[in-house]
User: What shape does this take?
Amino acid sequence: MKTQYVRTRFGIALLLSLFSISINAWSTSYISFSSNRTGNYDIYVMDINGENLQNLTNHPSWDSQPTWAPNGSAFAFVSNRDGNSEIYIMKLNGTEPQRLTYRPELDTNPAWSPDGKWIAFSSRNLKEQHYDIYKIDINGENLQQLTDDGKHNFAPSWSPDGEEIAFYSRPNDNGGIYVMNANGKRIRRAMHPNDRGTSPSWSPDGKQIAYYVGIMGSGIYIMGTQGQNPRRVTPNNIWSHNPAWSPDSTWIAYDAEIDNPWGNPNVDTNIYLISVDGGKPRQITKHPGKDEHPEWVPEGFLSVSPSTEKQTTFWGKLKQPEKATK
Assistant: This one.
């Protein structure tokens, strides 16, 4: 009897293991990014193997800088389709994108909050020519200005608990990464006064912040949330920008220009992955255009069977890769 029980347990464990392997084999991570490969910028998505490329926005306007709802059901982005740089939200149900901001200023750098309720973004004051950080709820209401110091403040990134926002600020010539409470209170510098960095990206485990240093041969760096132990993870002398963490905090997606862009009339930017421990980058896109602003797509993306005809059409399109160069 005991032998039969052991065999039964072993059989169940083996089946569960095989089931897990099967699930993992079919589970694929996706990365979204903006690209001008068709002549203007659109939002694209593809898997981390560089396959299944799809154009999500497909509009003659300029669409860029995607950021995803935590459940993967929608993404926010920047577009000038109404004549000004504004924030839009597009749901994955076949409906038209909804305009979120209606402002004379230039709105950019959207970041979706971890609780799914807010979009933080940067806005440039056209009269005074500086940026500030705002947040607005996903219904386009409750606009709140979080910074108001007459400095350049942009590129917000939420902490995974939603309690804080990291951002770039330049109160003087030595700009760097700052952190504030989600209500705009208690602003403090998050890195050494002599260090520089921009476009922060908070790791999903809440322990680190990735950023890039925008000087000659700019690269991706990682530091602790208090600025401790900064280190470069991308190769030297490669122009690397816009880091984005994988959901498990082990990989960083970024865009990079291999050749020196200064004086180069044919700059081509592609998407790469690199381990947080460094090593050799893995190139995801290979196209002569500019692929920029990568963002990992949440696990909920494509995980639930669509329930309407429009959703089925959209879901089916994503199963059919475009015939285009990566």
The chain has a mean pLDDT of 84. Residues 239 and 260 are 7 Å apart (CA to CA). The domain at 2-318 is CATH 2.120.10.30 (Neuraminidase). The radius of gyration is 21 Å.
